[in-house]
Amino acid sequence: MTTLVEKETLKIHIDGVDVMADLCLPKNAQGIIIFSHGSGSSRLSPRNQFVAEMLNDAGFATLLFDLLTDKEASVFENRFNIDLLTKRLISVTDWVIRDQINDDLPIGYFGASTGAASALRAAAVFCNKIKVVVSRGGRPDLAMSELSLVTAPIQLIVGSEDHQVIELNKRAFGKIHSPKEFVIIKGATHLFEELGKLEEVAENATRWFDKHLVATENMKDVQR
């Protein structure tokens, strides 16, 4: 079933620069998922857009934004500057919280590749304000010192043929103290380009957000 979604392209002014963002807001959204793309990518990543559309259909708002301006991205080193990318994600998250998009929705992160490291580092800063983190083919090993500080449930999704990244994720998985899940998508490589594999990623992510983002907020409503 297709969900009615309000879509808007925004220019967000943070850290003295303007970054472009695409906000998709379903009617009666259950939460908002902020995407953190990988190095050399952007908010226009077809893989992230595919996952975002499936999350929209499941009733989640999504915010995909450019971690860097065009000028910043032209400097090769910036694309792999995890400190800079994390700072930018924190600033955008602050903007979401400050602007209280659609009734103060609970916030989750979806990080891809090196963007997963930025998401995990930012989640450690925000503590319980970030309710869930999902990593797709991510590099949580680049956030090793922050993993034990993350209170949000973490799901690591890796392709079975992405052997090096599997090993890096296994090492990181042992450092996570919050609720966690390791999902290996059989027959998938790093970009999940094989038929149906990216859909499996989106289905697993949706299940994790349903379980830990929606259920947590529903429990709060019961306790009020």
In short:
It is built from seven helices and eight strands.
Description:
The protein has one domain (5-223): Rossmann fold (3-Layer(aba) Sandwich). The chain has an eight-stranded mixed beta sheet, sandwiched between helices. It has seven helices and eight strands; from the N terminus they run βββαβααβαβαβαβα. The protein is α/β, with parallel strands linked by helices and 224 residues long.
Helices and strands, with pairings:
Blueprint: E1 5-14, E2 17-26, E3 32-36, H1 46-57, E4 61-65, H2 70-73, H3 82-99, E5 107-112, H4 114-126, E6 130-136, H5 144-147, E7 154-159, H6 163-173, E8 180-185, H7 197-223
Parallel strand pairs: 3-4, 3-5, 5-6, 6-7, 7-8
Antiparallel strand pairs: 1-2, 2-4
Helix pairs in contact: 1-7, 3-4
